[in-house]
Amino acid sequence: MKLNIQLITAAILSTGGIILLFCGVFISPQGEIHESLLVGFGEVATFSGALMGVDYVYRNKK
What we know:
By secondary structure, this protein is mainly alpha-helical. It has one domain. The chain is built from two helices and no strands. The longest helix is centred in the first third of the chain and has 25 residues.
């Protein structure tokens, strides 16, 4: 059960990070959220999701 939650969290973090990276690049800043904040958080979320995904794969490798 714990590994399934880890896999779902990794997928959500990776997907959300990639979406924020695209938003930071393609949406012009309108004063609400600066693009550097979107890009920075997108990179962190994508990296965290990737690490959790790699950890999941190696824990289930037999």
